[in-house]
Amino acid sequence: MLRLSPEDPKAVMPVVKRLLKLSGLTQETTRFGAINFLNLFIYIAAVLVPKVCFPYPNTEAMIRGLSELIFFTNVYVGFFCFISQHRQRDLLNAIDSFVDVVYPTAAHPSDSPSEQILIKFNVKIQKLSVVFCWYIAVTATFYWLAPCLMTYRSIYMASVSVENGSVQSIQYYPNLEESFYWLDNRSSVYGYATFSIVALLVFTVASYNNATKLLTILTTIKYCNTLLQLVIIEVDNLNHATSNAIDRELKQVIQLHQRAVRCVALLNQTLSFVMTVQLALCILTWCFTLLYILTVGLDVTGMNGLLIMFNMTLEMFGYCFFCTELATTGTLIACQSYEFRWEEHDPKIQKMISTIVARSQLPLRITACGFITVNVELFAKVVKTTYSVFIVLKDFI
């Protein structure tokens, strides 16, 4: 699965589909995989309940704990919001049906520009998906391993000081800032080691959730954008079509455009609530992370907080940038349709072109809550809102 070069360059999002299959999600069935209930149990039992129902030793620990809670809520709850949407199966099927029109059979030669673009795009997506999976694995390992190494170093230094006749206390750096039920994970070596195993499980599942959610969303947005680009190419090719073939070519363009618009509509329905959760939790994560660094300083836990903030920023900006690109490509179809020499053709052809133009003028956008357009401008507004909320929280604390 994690090969840089795809086994089949014509396959649509193979990495994403295999990640979804690990949760029991396939295009053939609407069954909700039982493994997802274990996934949900880990979030509730190992993250939500300890961080909400058990006390923190000080204000700084509480701020970090809430920041982690918001981040993991975005990862776990965002993942569940996405996979519980039955529209995501319809979306994957709609993308497959579009691709089948471009190359109907597996034995069809890849000689048309549209096929070449799709194949190059599939190869590029495969490489980026694999690299991102490794990035998630490395960052999660660092987040879990760095506190462990610092703690075990402190234990070693304490044992050396005892041999030298002095006493040096052990400083424990928690993997996750929480009191894990009645386990003494803040001042006991056994408790800390036990909790580290629990934290490793949390990070492993969270890494899978985050990679699956982010890759699926970004890849489908980018795929829909590529489908619209193929429509633009096909519209441009109409100027080179013969009079005998123009009717057939135009009907195929209308079919492709209709399928592409349906893909974007399904994408919007699938992501509307997910983007709402992402938008709200991104602001809160930024605020609490900055507040923690301002209060405590840039130590090991502060670096981990910056890592969380960087990942959230990367994810949010990726959504906004790709959605802006998608909306821009949608408007280009109308522009390309206007350049077609429709006046040289009979009224039947002109009417078919007007259908493409009319459909192209409808805005293609992804929204949060159904009315907040996700774009780069929204990202700038989120940054400004975060700063305002951060100032209020800083004065309150």
Following the backbone from N to C, one meets helices and strands in this order, namely: HHHHHHHHHEEH
Give Rg in angstroms: 26 Å
Could you tell me the mean pLDDT?
83
The largest sheet, given as strand count, sense and whether it forms a barrel, is: 2 strands, antiparallel
Q: How many helical stretches?
A: 10
Number of beta-strand segments: 2
Decide which structural class fits the backbone.
mainly alpha
Spatial sequence of strands, sheet with the most strands:
1-2
- What fraction, in percent, of the residue positions are helical? over 70%
Q: How many domains is the backbone divided into?
A: 1
Low-confidence stretches: none
Q: DSSP strand (E) fraction? A: under 5%
Give the distance, in angstroms, between the N- and C-terminal Cα atoms: 47 Å
User: Which of globular, elongated, flat, extended, rod-shaped describes the shape?
Assistant: elongated
Can you give a write-up of this model?
- With 397 residues, this protein is mainly alpha-helical.
- It is built from 10 helices and 2 strands; from the N terminus they run αααααααααββα.
- Strands 1-2 form a two-stranded antiparallel ribbon.
- A hairpin with a 3-residue loop joins strand 1 and strand 2 (372-373).
- Helix 1 runs antiparallel to helix 6, helix 6 runs antiparallel to helix 7 and helix 8 packs antiparallel against helix 10.
- It is elongated, with a radius of gyration of 26 Å.
- The model has no long low-confidence stretch (mean pLDDT 83).
